[in-house]
Amino acid sequence: MSPNARTANPINVTEPVKKGEWHPLSWNTKPIEQLPPYPDTEQLEAAFNELKSLPPLITSWEIEALKDKLAAVSRGESFLLQGGDCAETFDACKSTKIVNLLKVLLQMSFILVHEMGTPVVRVGRIAGQYAKPRSKDFEVIDGKKILNYRGDLINSYEQNAVARTPDPQRMLEAYNKAGLTLNFLRALSDEGFADLQHPEQWELDFMKNNEYYKDYVAMVNSIHKAINFMETITPNTFNTLHKVDLYTSHEALNLYYDSAQTRKVPRKSDWFNLSSHMVWVGNRTRDIDGAHVEYLKGIANPIGIKVGPPFEIDDILKLIETLNPNHEAGKIVLITRMGVDEVESMLSPLIKAVKKEGHPVIWSCDPMHGNTFSTNSSIKTRRFGDILDEIRSTFAVHRAEGSYLGGVHLELTGDNVTECVGGANGLSEKGLDTNYETYCDPRLNYEQSLEMAFLVAKEWNKSYR
Ligand code: PEP
Ligand code: CO
């Protein structure tokens, strides 16, 4: 256990529980990382109990449906596209942002489906992605040491000690904002997104600078043709995207938020985290003896595990076994984030070991978190080229091991931000200032995301077609 782990604020368990048995608060007695103490436990408990009494955001049926779809990914029959902001903020709970994220994820998935000829499961980092692990607990502002910002679910971005104090009321605001986001996503997915299927309305001129522009135009024309054909033969079923499935996910970091929304449902024996379809455990909180793993081992949701340096293969194997003792397919998504220089040496022994144990995991590549750096003017960024190269190397290693890379996990937005350098439009370090919005990690913008989808499909085809 790392020296940074501490005791969590204790919450009274109100339901009868058998000694030694898992329950949504059994993590509460374990050491916890990445969550600063709340100054007032009574207030925390009041917020926790209020959150616990509110209706769930999603249903157990949806969680089970996602797990079935992920099981198909683990069998190599489908592909997982997971993406969204590094951190959602309460202020950004706005119609344009939500529409733009749904739009870019849908367009990316059309590109993947069309180019790869395989179904795509879409999972957003959305409607709950409000808490962040940080490498440092504190920062110094005007000579004063204050707590670091840890996402709107925990404290506020403003640089003063009061704003940075963890505030339990934020859990209720996060629940409200997640609910509003999800409500709008569901409405958009039911109706009103018909135009998105028409690639002639996509903004693609930027691709002219990509070496594959011709292939890209050919793909767009062919999607266009296929859609026109379908609309002619079945006009009523195809002119709206009937039920676009977009599942939600976030890092289960603030366990008070997640456990207050962890419930039993009628006629099922499992516990479900009903705040999100899928949750993941971060690279810094996956200690087998820690609070996060204790919490995650009791829920039925699909679970992502971030794996990047430093890690021991045996620890990862133990973790998979602990979180999925029944070896259920569709349950564990191993999200590797090695960094472009490390992936070749680190990934293949891990694939071999997981294979040997016979774990039916879904392999996904997060090419973002191992490739962050700061420019000379201290702007946090990532190179499009490094991101792509980590994806390419990850595909190559899986190909060599006879293993299926079934997904990508990207930090992206549908907005025209300038946070990552490179891509067909050749955004330079100087250009980062133009529209740099993120409070946390740099995201691919709309154009870079579409281009990335196209390049991911190319790599997938090299490996699996
Ligand atoms: C993240 O996904 O935003 C993140 C912090 O990732 P990791 O835990 O892999 O560093
Ligand atoms: Co991030």
Descriptive labels:
465 residues; alpha/beta; TIM Barrel; two-stranded antiparallel sheet; 12 helices; binds phosphoenolpyruvate; binds cobalt (II) ion
Task: Characterise the protein shown here.
The chain is 37% helix and 13% strand. β8, α8 and β9 form a beta-alpha-beta unit. The protein is an alpha/beta fold. It has a domain of 312 residues: Alpha-Beta Barrel (TIM Barrel). About 1% of the residues have low confidence. It contains 12 helices and 14 strands. The strands form 4 sheets. It has an 8-stranded parallel beta barrel, surrounded by 4 helices.
Helix share bin: 25-40%
Query: Biggest sheet, strands in spatial order?
Result: 1-2-5-8-9-10-11-14
Class computed from helices, strands and strand pairing: alpha/beta
CATH architecture of one domain: Alpha-Beta Barrel
Q: Regions with pLDDT < 50 over 5+ consecutive residues? A: 238-242
The name CATH uses for the topology of one domain is: TIM Barrel
Write down the overall geometry: globular
Helices, by number, come to: 12
Give the SSE map.
Layout: H1 41-53, H2 60-74, E1 79-84, H3 95-116, E2 120-125, E3 138-141, E4 144-147, H4 169-190, H5 213-233, H6 235-238, E5 247-251, H7 255-260, E6 262-264, E7 271-273, E8 278-281, H8 291-296, E9 303-307, H9 313-323, E10 332-336, H10 343-357, E11 362-365, E12 372-374, E13 380-382, H11 384-401, E14 405-411, H12 446-464
Helix pairs in contact: 1-4, 3-4, 3-12, 10-11, 11-12
Phosphoenolpyruvate (PEP) is lined by residues 86, 133, 282-284, 306, 308, 337, 369.
